């Protein structure tokens, strides 16, 4: 059963072939450790709720391995959130969802009423749809707490036009396009109104519709399809403009322009066995970049290349700042260790070294963590906590530097610790 809470997010895929994957990956932990908050205060968490179709779900063709979890734009957006502080993602991308389905689903969410699969949209191929239908009261709560709401929707509405464009006359193509645009605008605006009823203030980012077919594949209809994509962008902008209010922004994430001319590398339409409009990993990164730049004005990546050997230390980001120190992190038994002084500077903590006991005491926010060289336990406010690999002394030049296990220390101090295996980056936030 899907279990979505502070630090756990759903991750979607596609097609009935993926049932095994979806059961095992439908809820994936996004946190290495849930932070404990000093004095019982609720941590300030930036909350993202992603709604929409299989693009939101992160589907790629061939995802039949139950050990493979989707890594789409929403998961990348969560990583971008970690660069800015504590963040959580709830991903409710539904495979095969149309704008009518989104309208129905958001209406049920607005009412906080459990619905049915057919109540959302008859014939949806998503094997999780019954679970999504039952989660509407929970989703209403999550939606109401969201800081950022993202939407990708409309691709399933227009896919038929892509397939038939070459066979339609200009007049027939225009007539079908006009009908699709009218339906899209009406449905999406009503869905946004439902969302606004639940959350009057969150930023909403609505992606426009990219055109997935490269010119080489649809040479005779490429210009028509590109014109259609541009008109969908205008429709999205019109809907967003009608909903945009001071203190309650609704913006368009201009994805379509980033796909124009490079469709072959950003989608699977040529490489898949059958035509598939979904993004490649590069395509999903492109979408995530557009969303991140629309909200934060930037899309960050680690300075250490992700293809670096697994034996090399990972990138470490503390309170939004990537550590860059001459005392390089040391990877030992799968854990990253940092020099004591670098840790103190990174987290803004106070600390002292006791030569007699060979231990470091670090104080932050009312917590005290004591780490002793060679000991497989650390003390957090006097209580012993087991660690896999103890602190050690490392010769750096002519000095012996005290290296402490970063994750254990950060957790002991009540920090939020997240790790992205894709970026090989640990994110630590107070």
UniProtKB/TrEMBL annotation:
Domain called Copper amine oxidase-like N-terminal: residue spans: 317-428
Signal peptide span: 1-32
Keywords, ordered alphabetically: Signal
A Pfam family of this chain: Cu_amine_oxidN1
InterPro entries cross-referenced by the UniProt entry: Cu_amine_oxidase-like_N (IPR012854), Ester_Hydrolysis_Enzymes (IPR051532), GDSL (IPR001087), Mao_N_sf (IPR036582), SGNH_hydro_sf (IPR036514)
Keyword RNA-binding: no
Name of the protein this chain belongs to: Copper amine oxidase
